[in-house]
């Protein structure tokens, strides 16, 4: 298991996402044939549902971490930094704004990024983005999420670019303290 992957799974929210996956893996009702518009609407509705229960708003919608999600700016990214050995990362703008969001990606490119942990621009998805959980989802569920994101109201908002390790950053960050002995990663893992 890579260090990046281990770190990604350390976050509390990952547990929420994992339980969501158990549901997402359940087979869904077959869609009616010959009704493409209705099928598309149902797919988007499912994507909305999945992003809600999987905690995407926690990190990607402004205000959620402070108990007051602003749904007028839903999934438009956050300027609260996440600091760790990977540097400082920022939950990005997931609305389809073509300059600051993901509007220039296709549905397939977004699905591919969840499967591989590489952002559509070709750079690794940094923690705490819990992509290892999402990589286990069905194609149908991942496509529903991607279609939903591309159907959102575009919001123009450029989140700060990720800051590499060691480079100073003066903005607000959430930083993990060094782990207590019990939680420290064991090498080799316990039981091996
Ligand atoms: C624990 C916080 C957290 C949660 C929960 C989370 N993300 Fe993220 N996400 C991030 C961070 C931080 C980044 C930026 C990673 C980077 O810079 O490499 C990110 C990046 C992304 C990207 C890449 C965007 C781009 O511009 O390339 C996509 C797509 C994405 N997240 C979608 C989602 C979806 C969909 C969900 C819910 C199913 C979700 N995220 C849940 C924190 C989170």
TrEMBL record:
SUPFAM superfamilies: Cytochrome c (SSF46626). Residues 1-24 form the signal peptide. Pfam families: Cytochrom_C. Residues 42-153 form the Cytochrome c domain. Gene3D superfamilies: Cytochrome c-like domain. Residues 175-192 have a biased composition (Pro residues). InterPro entries: Cyt_c-like_dom, Cyt_c-like_dom_sf, Cytochrome_c-type_DH. GO terms for molecular function: electron transfer activity; heme binding; metal ion binding. The keyword Heme applies. It comes from the Bacteria. PROSITE patterns: CYTC. PANTHER family: ALCOHOL DEHYDROGENASE CYTOCHROME C SUBUNIT (PTHR35008:SF8), BLL4482 PROTEIN-RELATED (PTHR35008). This is C-type cytochrome.
């Amino acid at each position: 298991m890579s260090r990046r992957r281990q770190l990604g799974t350390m976050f509390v929210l990952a547990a929420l996402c994992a339980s969501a996956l158990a549901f997402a893996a359940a087979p869904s009702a077959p869609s009616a044939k010959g009704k493409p518009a209705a099928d598309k609407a149902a797919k988007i509705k499912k994507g909305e549902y999945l992003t809600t229960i999987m905690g995407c708003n926690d990190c990607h919608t402004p205000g959620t971490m402070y108990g007051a999600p602003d749904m007028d700016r839903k999934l438009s990214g956050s300027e609260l930094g996440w600091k760790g050995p990977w540097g400082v990362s920022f939950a990005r703008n997931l609305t389809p704004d073509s300059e600051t969001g993901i509007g220039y990606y296709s549905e397939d490119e977004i699905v591919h990024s969840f499967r591989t942990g590489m952002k559509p621009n070709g750079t690794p998805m940094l923690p705490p983005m819990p992509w290892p959980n999402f990589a286990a989802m069905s194609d149908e569920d991942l496509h529903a999420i991607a279609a939903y994101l591309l159907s959102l109201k575009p919001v123009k908002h450029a989140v700060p670019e990720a800051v590499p390790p060691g480079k100073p950053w003066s903005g607000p960050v959430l930083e993990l303290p060094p782990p207590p002995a019990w939680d420290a990663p064991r090498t080799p893992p316990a039981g091996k």
